[in-house]
Amino acid sequence: MLTIDVAVLLAVIVVWRLRRRTEARSRFDEKLTVVIVLALGVLIAPTPAGPGILNIVGQLASGVTQASR
Hints:
It is built from 3 helices and no strands. It is mainly alpha-helical.
């Protein structure tokens, strides 16, 4: 029996959608990408990788904030 992890499938879809040219995207297309990324975040958050990803993103955000001062 073949099983597909939904988070991995959504990650592949996000990478595929973001590789497309920016000029070819409509507003609906951009909104759909945002919804897919949010769903991916909800799926990843409760996994053991979730807190690690949150920590990395938090450090990047604080570094950008300090660099802009």
